[in-house]
Design a protein that fits this description.
The protein is mainly alpha-helical. Among the domains are: 31-275, no CATH class; 306-427, Alpha Horseshoe (Serine Threonine Protein Phosphatase 5, Tetratricopeptide repeat), CATH 1.25.40.10. Helix content is 67%, strand content 2%. The chain is built from 28 helices and three strands. It has helices spanning 2-23, 33-46, 58-74, 83-101, 135-138, 144-159, 162-174, 187-190, 195-211, 217-235, 246-258, 262-275, 290-303, 307-320, 325-337, 341-354, 359-372, 375-388, 395-408, 412-426, 432-444, 448-461, 466-478, 482-492, 512-523, 527-540, 547-553, 556-581; strands at residues 111-115, 123-125, 130-134. It has a three-stranded mixed beta sheet with strand order 1-3-2, with helices on both faces. β2 and β3 (130-134) form a beta hairpin. α2 (33-46) packs parallel to α11 (246-258), α19 packs antiparallel against α20 and α19 (395-408) runs parallel beside α21 (432-444). The protein is elongated and about 85 Å long. The termini are far apart. The model is unreliable at 24-53, 237-242 and 496-504 (pLDDT under 50).
Length: 585
């Protein structure tokens, strides 16, 4: 009797708290963890409350789920992946999901949706048949069997009325009529259910996957992967190579608050394998869209400045699916940052072959050829490509790139002939993009006066072109005009000229103006200011610490100054460490 009174008191207090929370509107940042934690903490108690005497009909449940799914589609967060990736992954998700759902007890219109956000490491189901899987969760998978296990788990939350019972529970707690239930927050279904319901979904979801000819090991490997991720990023609070967003951390923390222990879930599946004689079902199918997630990981590794990892992941992805422009972009930029200019040139050549009209790819290919060092061969290779692709970018752009490589190769006759043709076309008023480009080629060829003239002309026509302004700063350094060079670098060094759209590769935050400022200060004997800027630039773009990279792209003056600053910084760091280790009197 005493325990019954206690339980009734707990339930009454909980309902009262829910009522007050509905009445009081509190402004707070929108994050997933409040709802996740609330459901996790209350599910085990509230789940025991009786639901309506009669279940929702299938028609009512489907109607509620469809309304919620429609609302989620209208207000879904921005994607972190390209539309092309979504078109690759979602049909595959539907195919696997339909195969598993065919064995469900309830014959509902099961529909499967891909959430293209890398920070969404979760899957959930809505009443009536909608199942959602996040990109962050699929990224953990190595096999189609793991995906089938996840989909089976979510299908069983619908198949065994867990979603419908949550709707009825909320209806009773909030005193909502049926027509208002469609306004329930979708996040209520992203969180976990009671321990018994979760274990039931594991058990029956694995059974669905096995009936669809998948290995039960998919479920075990999925649990193990999730546990590893949780321990690495949440429990240990370490500093991993790829930091999770706060949304991802909150999702993981809420997931593990609301779900049974991993060891218990694995033990249950192992017991089923023994009892159902599934021990010979060990062969797993490859995840056919794994290359999408390898490319996404490569992109993130590149932005995190882990260039070797980015290049390796991009190659792995391209081995599986060669026709991926984004993977070739990541590979090209990663190899360029590693100063492997031959590999970078090969990657850009692939991109150019597929998109010969791209001026950006042509510039990157020519830059890689020039940085490689074999300049006469570079000229021949570009000439061959231009001859084989007459349908490429504008003729003037092609002539500028060829003239630039000839300048670097000290082919004075060929370069002057190409420039003369451009002078005949444009006279003294070259388009700014062409003037800026030939100016930079002159800088790389050591013709600093000509470089300054062309870049000044381009800068006057495009006052907001940060690339041209920065390049003009480098040319002014070679003319010992440090004050004017600093003005140029200071005008742009605080900017971040990369696309905020994370669905494309974009650029790293530009450290180049910072390093330009450092070099100008260093050559002007302003060492403290130089080292301060040098540290910022080197941290943001570690390529500057690679002498081969610096010598390949900038003048000998710049390469020497960067090496001297690196040495001076190391000396000062050693001196500070020695001072700290000195015994006090």
């Amino acid at each position: 009797m005493k325990y019954r009174v206690l339980l009734i008191s707990i339930i009454a207090l909980t309902i009262a708290a829910l009522f007050l929370s509905e009445k009081r509107k509190v402004d707070a940042p929108v994050r997933p963890d409040p709802i996740l934690y609330f459901v996790a903490d209350t599910e085990r108690e509230l789940g025991r409350l009786p639901v309506a005497a009669t279940r929702l009909s299938d028609r009512q449940e489907i109607q509620i789920g469809d309304e919620m799914a429609g609302r989620r589609a209208r207000f879904s967060p921005d994607s972190s992946q390209s539309e092309a990736n979504v078109k690759e992954v979602e049909p595959y998700l539907i195919q696997v999901g339909s195969r598993v759902a065919a064995h469900a007890h309830r014959k509902l219109p099961y529909r499967f949706h891909y959430i293209p956000r890398s920070d969404f490491i979760n899957a959930f189901a809505l009443p009536g048949g909608h199942v959602y899987v996040g990109a962050g969760l699929m990224e953990l998978m190595d096999s189609e069997d793991e995906l089938a296990a996840i989909l089976g788990h979510e299908i069983e939350h619908i198949d065994h009325y867990h979603c419908a019972e949550r709707v009825q529970l909320e209806a009773r707690l909030r005193h909502l009529p049926l027509h208002e239930l469609v306004q329930l927050p979708v996040q209520l279904f992203e969180a976990g259910y009671s321990k018994d319901q979760e274990l039931e979904a594991d058990r029956e979801g694995t059974r669905l996957a096995v009936l669809a000819s998948y290995s039960p090991l998919g479920a075990i490997r999925m649990f193990e992967a999730f546990e590893r991720l949780y321990r690495e990023y949440v429990v240990r609070a370490s500093t991993p190579q790829e930091e999770l967003t706060q949304v991802a951390r909150d999702t993981l923390a809420g997931y593990f608050r609301s779900h049974p222990r991993t060891s218990e879930r694995i033990e249950q599946i192992n017991q089923m394998i023994a009892e159902e004689h599934w021990g010979n079902m060990t062969r797993e199918r490859p995840l056919e869209v794994a290359y999408v997630f390898w490319t996404e990981r490569a992109r993130r590794a590149y932005f995190a400045k882990h260039y070797q990892e980015a290049a390796g992941l991009a190659k792995h992805s391209l081995d599986a699916r060669p026709d991926q422009p984004l993977a070739w972009q990541v590979l090209g930029r990663a190899e360029f940052a590693l100063a492997d200019f031959s590999q970078a040139g090969a990657a850009y050549r692939k991109l150019l072959d597929s998109t010969p009209t791209s001026e950006d790819y042509l510039h990157a290919y020519a830059d890689s050829l020039a940085a490689r060092g074999d300049n006469s061969r570079a000229v021949r290779e570009l000439q061959i490509w231009l001859t084989d692709h007459p349908e490429g970018s504008a003729l003037a752009v092609r002539k500028v790139e060829l003239a630039g490589l000839m300048l670097v190769a000290h082919d004075r006759v060929g370069a002057e002939a190409a420039v003369a043709q451009l002078n005949a076309a444009f006279g003294a008023a070259w388009p700014p993009e062409l003037a800026g480009r030939i100016g930079w080629w002159n800088y790389r060829a050591g013709n600093y006066s000509a470089a300054s003239n062309y870049l000044t002309q381009a800068a006057h026509q495009r006052l907001d072109d940060e690339t041209v302004i920065t390049q003009l700063g480098w040319a002014l350094i070679e003319q010992r005009d440090f004050e004017d060079a600093l003005l140029r670098f200071d005008a742009v060094k605080g900017s971040v000229p990369f696309s905020a759209d994370t669905r494309v590769l974009g650029f790293l935050p530009r450290a180049e103006p910072r390093m330009g400022s450092a070099v100008a200060h260093w050559l002007a004997r302003q060492k403290d200011e130089a080292l301060r800027e040098f540290s910022i630039a080197a941290d943001a773009q570690p390529e500057w610490l690679n002498p081969h990279w610096t010598r390949a792209l900038y003048s000998p003056t710049v390469a020497k100054a960067v090496a001297e600053m690196q040495t001076e910084k190391s000396k000062r760091q050693q001196a500070r460490r020695a001072d700290r280790n000195q015994p006090t009197a």
